[in-house]
Amino acid sequence: MQKRLDIKTDYELIYNMIEPNSKVLDLGCGDGSLLLNLVKGKKIQAQGIEINEVFVRKCVEKGLNVFHSDIDSGLFGYPDDSFDYVILNQSMQQTKKVDFVMEESLRVGKKVIVGFPNFAYLWARMRLFFKGKVPITISLPWSWYNTENLHFLSIADFIDYCEVKDVFIEEAFYLGKKGLVKFLPNLFALNALFLIKKKS
Amino acid sequence: MDDSRLIVDTKYFTFTNHDRKFIFDSGESLPEITIAYETYGVLNQNRDNAILILHALSGDAHVAGVYENDQRLGWWDSMVGPNKAIDTNKYFVICSNVIGGCCGSSGPSSINPLTKKPYALEFPIITIFDMVRAQKYLIDHLGIDKLLSVVGGSMGGMQVLAWAALFPDRIQSAIPIATTLKHSPQQIAFDEVGRQAIMADPDWCDGNYYGLKIPQRGLAVARMIGHITYMSEDSMEKKFSRRLKDKKYSFSFMADFEVEGYLRYRGDSFVKRFDANSYLYITKAMDYFNLSDEFLFENEAVRDVRFLVISFNSDWLYPSYQSRAIVNLLKSKMINSTYCDIDSNYGHDAFLLEVDQQSHIVEHFLTNTHNLCKKD
Which residues are within 8 A (CB) of B258 and not within 5 positions of it... i.e. 6 or more apart? Predict the structure, then answer.
């Protein structure tokens, strides 16, 4: 799936979050560009999981280890804390069982990086309020009938979720049209990126 | 195309129990064992570009190219050759006939040097591990310390996994295709029906048919069953549908439908090239194979092997879930691995027919593995 948002920004943020020489699992790794950059720049040990066969082949071309699988069943088999980071960038909301995927990610990863589009973005609210239509924004570009997103959430929803599930938020970044958003992110951010881990 | 065709010949390597001790899993042994093999390309100076290809149930050492006086193409010629996925310009490719087979390696149709007669059922029951232990002696003989890769589909894939379990320090990478860690009851059942068809043929004579009439009806039926399991419902529909050979029903038990004619043809041509006893031995070896649980990891060196696991989504004989079981085992030990479930409607035959997607993955995987071992 194409991402209309300036991809560089969230890729850069993720890139910076990850410590050199760590083990990284990217769930929904696409063509593997992010993992390849991390392998080259940070000497990580990379593993991708990707459902699209064409992307799987692109990853193999890049020399990456990749499993052709959906995310929901892709985490099965890994021992606890197998990875330093599990990345769920723009893929969490597309899984069937988010709760299960999050639990599994937090089990196999010491830390989890989650990126998702913010459903409570100002223009999303406006469209719903004034037009009475489901939001279509830069980060939620699809119509209701062709979107791959199965779950819709806001930044506030995710923060609630972490509290309920006893998950510690180590870092959070909010992205707007022109870079990072500091002020009222749940209103002004198109996308959010969280670095989370289990509360031990 | 013809100028790029490989001209190959079959070579033979024989060892005795004195040179190299060889005890079958059954506990038995033979005075000597011969392995038929072919090689393609050139072994480089570092001896790090050798790839061993393992064949399936009815395969042989002739994986690619043609013989000088026989234009029959190798069974995986689409994948192996100059500028193909397994590029013989870059790699030194070896393929050997399994022991127990009937295409040059020691098997039930070989002559027992003690009695000067074919072994028939005196030949020891073989296992996939036995096949691989014999191959290891061939690799020793060829002076190769470490294979860049072992590659094979179906029963060839079982041998790949057996290599990883037995001799992981002798391989850089492993490519098991359309295979399994163990035969399911359904797979054993299909093999057993094939064996029963052979043994029910009155010409089988408890395996002592050499020099006499061969049990061709039984072997042909076994092969027909096999062919049904190698195709998918979809590929059969596309290939035959309900088409008739002649436009109307014969109202007899002649082969009315194209699919009947095809199976009969396949059965009849198989008996000309394959030994019925070898069919019994090799299918039994597949049924005995079981690498589930932790046995794959008995030798710690397996952790350094890179795996590429491939399955085909229409394969119902070796369904994708069996490949995923391999992957899950590798995951549990965090072993470097890649898995692709290739979209195809050919069924199990896809590993022989689905060339484009398979080539792409295998080619890149091998190149990357070779680059990695150059760095080491």
Answer: B240, B243, B244, B245
- Span B80-98, average pLDDT: 97
- Are B357 and A57 inside 8 Å of each other by CB? yes
CA distance B192 to B200: 12
pTM of the model: 0.95
Q: DSSP readout, A80-107?
A: TT-EEEEEEETTGGGSS-HHHHHHHHHH
Contacts of B324 in chain A (CB under 8 A): 69
Of B328, B332, B337, the CB nearest to A65: B337
Pick the residue from chain A with its C-alpha nearest to B328: A77
Domain range list for chain A: 7-118+151-198
Domain boundaries, chain B: 2-183+291-375, 187-285
Q: Minimal Cα–Cα distance from A68 to chain B, Å? A: 5
Catalytic residue (one of B130, B201, B287, B315): B315
B348 is catalytic: yes
Task: Please tell me the distance in Å from B329's CA to the nearest CA on chain A.
Answer: 7
The yes or no reply on domain B187-285 and CATH 1.10.1740.110 is yes
pLDDT digits (tens, 9 = 90+) for B109-150: 999 999 999 999 999 999 999 999 999 999 999 999 999 999
Of B306, B328, B342, the CB nearest to A53: B342
Residue B110 a catalytic site member: no
Which residue's structure tokens are 């894939």? B157
Q: What residues pair up with B50 in beta bridges, in sequence order?
A: B92
First to last CA, chain B: 37
Task: Locate B158 and state its tokens.
Answer: 């079982």
Cβ separation B332–A65 shorter than 8 A: no
Contact A53 B340 (CB under 8 A): yes
Tell me the pLDDT tens digit for each residue of A133-167: 999 999 999 999 999 999 999 999 999 999 999 99
Nearest CA in chain B to A68: B340
Other C-beta atoms closer than 10 Å to the C-beta of B212 total 9
Give percent helix, percent strand, percent coil of chain A, each to the nearest 5: 35, 25, 40
* CA distance linking residue B25 with residue A73, whole number of Å: 37
Class of domain B2-183+291-375: alpha beta
Architecture field, domain A7-118+151-198 = 3-Layer(aba) Sandwich (3.40)
In this complex, do A57 and B371 lie within 8 Å of one another by their Cβ atoms?
A: no
- Which tokens in the block code for residue B76? 């995986």
